Fold each of these.
Amino acid sequence: MSQQTWMLYAVMVFFMSATPGPNMLLALNHGIRHGFRSTLMTCFGLMTGLFLIMLGSVAGLGAILAASQVAFSIVKYAGALYLVYIGFRTWRASPRVARPSATGPARGNRLDLFRTGVLVSLSNPKAFIFFMALFPQFMNKQAPQLPQLLILMITFMVIETFWQFVYAGGGARLSRWLTSERRMRVVNRLSGGFFMGAGVALGASRL
């Protein structure tokens, strides 16, 4: 992989990751509700899920999902239902603005944030196929494959982490404006509606 190819890949991923999606919206929503420091656990969960997706793609899971309609449908609808569930919970959430404690979140809460991040990240089976289709476009077939895959994976995760921190930090700053239950309720409804809409769109997709 040449430096020019890597730069093209990095620029493409930079703008692609900046586009709001379930992962970024979760980081934003948790930043609003739990503060930036607590949302780091959410981001860690999101990146863990992303790393598992990449490993699954490299190991051939993407090919299995692409070849087996049954396997793909099971994973797709399970992910769609989870997004709808997250959206419903967010929609129904108390409009009170969470105030992070000085000592940080409790252990149980940290684990819950981490688990939610992992599950939301894994909720879209298309990601497995996406990485299987994306990586080869930037790889040199004549060069060793593993070092190139590692570079592509690490680059993607670094850029994705950067944007998750931006969204989480933006949410934490936005929480200062959300000083009324009415404003917080609007944010909950918008976020919940987006998650449920993403779940429905994912379930209805023919791909």
Note: The two ends are 30 Å apart (CA to CA).
Amino acid sequence: MVRDSNMPAENFNELLDWLDPDREVAAEKYLQLRQGLEKIFFWEHCLDPEGLTDQAIDRVVKNLPELRQNYEGDPQRYFFGVAKNLVREHRRFIINQTTLDDSAADKPIETKDEIIELREDCLDSCLNTLNSEQRKLILSYYKDTKRAKIEHRAQLAKGLGLSTEALRVRTSRIRVSLNQCLKQCLRKKQQGK
């Protein structure tokens, strides 16, 4: 899923203020929050963990003025609740996008291992549809985790002569085409079983 908005700087600052009054602590909490949300979406086998993370943050930011007045407790817990709802929406979306013919309805539901194997096969197939530059970029973009990922992406952007935001937009476009390819591939493989 594609992020539908760019967060204005003032909204981002307001979000950091809500996470913690100390700007450095707030920035660290924000990074941990992003990683936690991405993990949730990854563990739930969502097709675009990073895009769903952006969507969860955007949804919270839209309600931030009201939340700051009324919400009590750790803000991260609220984000995780929004993520839980997004996982449900994502599952409904996938189910609605997958058409079942009569013969497919009689077949047993795949196990998680079978689903993971299907996704890996489709991902390999879809990566091969990209040109070599796009494939190299997207694989490099998702190479590391945690702090190393942030540093690697900054170096990658610098090496390409781009800002980190421009790199993110470029990889987002590649990810959108990969997601479309993955959906089509999974649909074909599930119908072909």
Note: The chain has a mean pLDDT of 83.
Amino acid sequence: MGGFVPEIFSGFHLSPDQWLLAVLSGMMIGMAKTGITGFGMLMVPIMAGIFGGRPSTGIVLPMLCVADVFAVSYYHRHAAWKHVLRLMPPTVAGILIGLGVGAAVPDILFKAIIGVGVAVSVALMAWRDLRGDSISVPDVWWFSVLAGLAGGFFTMIGNAAGPVMALYFLAMRLPKNTFIGTTAWFFMIVNLLKVPLHLFVWGTITTATLAFDTVMIPAICAGALLGVRVVRIVPEKPYRVFIMATIVIAAVKMFF
């Protein structure tokens, strides 16, 4: 391992500040999977700013898969599988649409699409916070189709489907643990489905990116453990306002 880390550093040509942001992003991913939900969106524009739009999605995806293990291990007994199965066909369709769009556009436009997706996600987070339990959606087939298509598209373009799917599962009136467990299983399945697409179609997962992801595993683990503790002691409203404001700033920077 002595020569492994220096090789990774030189291969990505990152400055110390960028490495620090990457490590913090790894921690955010871990924290997002164990309760600090807003952090999952914050790392999307940060990683895109460091690595570029499309390349960042392939780097982040294995990190998300590692973090999914933590989420599923905590809540594996709580899942409403009928909702997961109902969403899968339109979600896969959305992933394939995102796959085609992502392959066709230049990286500057790819980053702009990520920025739009992040902005929409923040708006949904804010709306959900304002409406709370008063959210009411139609329990009809086309709502699941629209949610799956949107979630599939944004998870392929930027790994940014969290708020879309959280809003859907919240609208299904799932109990707290079932809501968390269903979301955890859904994203683990979806993220694993995306891996071969990044490997064989976009080519954004390589031995070099996997080596980078390996270096990030301690940060993801630390973030997951920290998230469990922080969610118990930090008041939810102030941190969510701070996170959403920070996400908006980071998303706006992606357009310039």
Note: The longest helix spans residues 176-202.
Amino acid sequence: MSNLGNMLRISNTPASRVWFSSDFHLGHNKEFVWKNRGYDSVESHSAGIINKVNDVVGENDTLFFLGDFCLNSDESMFNKYIDSIKCQNIHMIWGNHNNPVEKIYKREVSMKYGPGVKVYPFRYKNIVFEGDYIELFVNGQILILMHYPIDIWNFMKEGGMMLCGHSHYNYPNTVKDSENGKVLDVGWDGHGSPYSFEEIMFFMKNKNVKQVDHHVL
């Protein structure tokens, strides 16, 4: 298989597992978010998600987070959230709700490289900022990561899998049981926990390789 040279490569092993999630919405003060997820307040919602992440994702594991980490939160709250997560390797993609995270990113990059500069990957504490998109190679499997679901992605015909968020598990094409392409919404609403790499492979095995343009098999 060609053109894999620029991919981020990582191994999923028992000592260092790979996880995926999206759309935590920590601090989001709208009832339709925290109440629909079974919590009785915005505070219990934020604490519950962080506790669940810490239950399954280890300090030496890698968590790919596909956008919308927090809302209605200032910088001190964001720092409190990430300091409470024990995983030290969180690769974060931008979503459509990026404040105050993007503000911190811009300031930290500006201090190191100058104003107006974008640098990816860029580490801040236990977060590695990756921009809008990642092409990932895990144990021989290609994974395309973006906050928004797309219908045509790179390496689609080779069985590359599209992982996304954004829709809060409301888009039929990206749910676990859909066979319409190897695409999956890994957001919190569809699973209530980060997805392990093994779970991704399990849910994708019954999904079809979709052909929608001239890039045929």
Note: The chain has five helices and eleven strands.
